[in-house]
Amino acid sequence: MTTSTRGAAKVPAVLVLEDGRIFRGRAYGAVGETFGEAVFSTGMTGYQETLTDPSYHRQVVVMTAPHVGNTGVNDEDAESRRIWVSGYVVRDPARVPSSWRSRRTLDEELAAQGVVGISGVDTRALTRHLRERGAMRVGIFSGNALPDEGTMLAEVRQAPEMKGADLSGEVATKEAYVVPAQGEKKFTVAAVDLGIKGMTPYRMAERGIEVHVLPATATVDDVYAVDPDGVFFSNGPGDPATADHAVSVMRGVLERGTPLFGICFGNQILGRALGFGTYKLKYGHRGINQPVQDRTTGKVEVTAHNHGFAVDAPLDKVSDTPFGRAEVSHVCLNDNVVEGLQLLDKPAFSVQYHPEAAAGPHDAAYLFDRFVSLMEGQRA
Predict the structure, then answer these.
(1) What positions carry a catalytic annotation?
(2) Rounded to whole angstroms, how far apart are CA atoms 134 and 85?
(3) Quick one: which of 219, 329, 337, 347 has the most CB atoms within 10 Å?
């Protein structure tokens, strides 16, 4: 990625998809060039949380909501230490932010962090294209001396694909750290960071959990060195088929029977640990308005998603696994994609979406309480 940050608003920009389709607009954020996987997010709010979600590493995010940036950027809502998207695509950027919490414009923040974006694009047409053709590699080019279309397309097609990408180690913490419990400490949880969002350990801390966040390279011995009452596997970017180390660690936890909770990438890791396969979705689920049914209660939740891969597990039966019986606990009502797994003979479960949902909705917050109940049951 090469970037500059001066005078982006009037600079021409071009978005080039790997199938040859081209969209023209204006530079937004940094000026330069960037590459990644083109995906779309259906959220109408929460763009700051989206940008700083490590699960979006190496992805160019297209916002389906036409007006973006109207609440600016603040210093409180970031989910990690930096913006992780490799590019950003909007239709009508806000000219002036209108929130008392805003400290700077979204355009300024993107430029300051070197994130190349494009505005003035027909994001409705682009989203329809991605729904029909699937997520694909993309490049954004901006500046007064743009390459010719053939050169840009060739560069896009040379960019790495998301399938087969091993990325969790690039976004995870390098050193372990502790998020203390709020109020009385009730439990200790070892959280394996595969791209964890800041709100996740906070949600556990609210429930009296001291959270030890460990690097993605943590071993089973590292996990149990903190004497955990439960183990958590976080969200994260990349292809779960590459996550052999995380799968091995999770199998070690399952063998010991410690209460286990996984979200997003952690759900895919549990799927693999149980012997199920994973596969790449055509265009994925991203946004904060995805309907999911909890099959254990029949309740339908509106949930926050960011995943391009899914677990291949049977929806219509209980499966035998090396760790006992397992079943699909949650399913997406749009397309029947597996959105959750649970073991029936051990205290372990996972969901494919984001129950911490800092930008909302909060229908799935009960899952942290379910994790607490598992640890209470184990202690009893």
Answers:
(1) 264, 354, 356
(2) 19
(3) 337
